[in-house]
Amino acid sequence: MRFILVLLTALAVSASAADLQIVRPQVSQEEGGAPDPPGYSHIPGETLFFTCRIANFTRSAESKIHVAYSIQAFDPKGVALDPIYTNEFVDEVGPQDKQWMPKIQTEVSIPPLALPGAYKIVVKAEDLLAHTTAQVDVPFEVRGHSIEPSDKLTIQNFRFFYGENDPQPMPKPVYHPGQGVWVKMDITGFAYGPGNKIDVSYQTSFLNATGKLLWTQPEPAVEQTESFYPKRYIPAEFGVTLDKNIKPGVYTIQVQVKDAVGSQSYEGKETFTVE
What we know:
Elements: H1 2-17, E1 21-28, E2 41-42, E3 47-55, E4 64-74, E5 85-92, E6 103-109, E7 117-127, E8 132-142, E9 154-161, E10 174-175, E11 180-188, E12 198-207, E13 213-216, E14 221-225, E15 234-241, E16 249-259, E17 264-274
């Protein structure tokens, strides 16, 4: 009789474990909220709320379950956004819980400077009683600032504005005496050290049409950080107010960038007009 009981238990474990599933995956904009509508895209720096459930897990002869799981999000190139999150369910499930399914819920943070594209959340589960696994990839979209890949230090997306908070850059950088000149740009192509360490500095200068230096930053701006997820670019900006007596003509903004980790340097120049 004992042999038959053990055999039946083993068969039940095998049949149940073969159908281990991760079901009802859902990405929401708020905890307990509705799932994202089709075509919805998130923004860099946003926190996603993720849930799913485990179905068809195995119950032991003592009506216990033991399911381990992991969650990790990845960018379009397959680079993990955060360290892997792991946990497990060890519960006793009674007859009244026949329809019960363990619920997984966690948060996923999109990096503040994440590039646009198709991201995914990878969920893996293992039934430790039956030694079987299941996996599901849950896609989500990120919209945001585009940067072209670069294997060397450079500046991209150099834009002129009237003011720091202007939503759109000027189509043509034309200013008048006494106005403010505001510039925004993206530094990319720098190297990474251990722990995705970066060490980048930049210094801006203001030149007239003959190349004479009119103004320069007293000290370079410095970006020295480490992070789990590699920073893809450095947004940089600065402003200068034109003298009321400045002469009309073409002027130049010069930016000198240094990458201490990669032993690189770059100099960029952009012109604007004073009328």
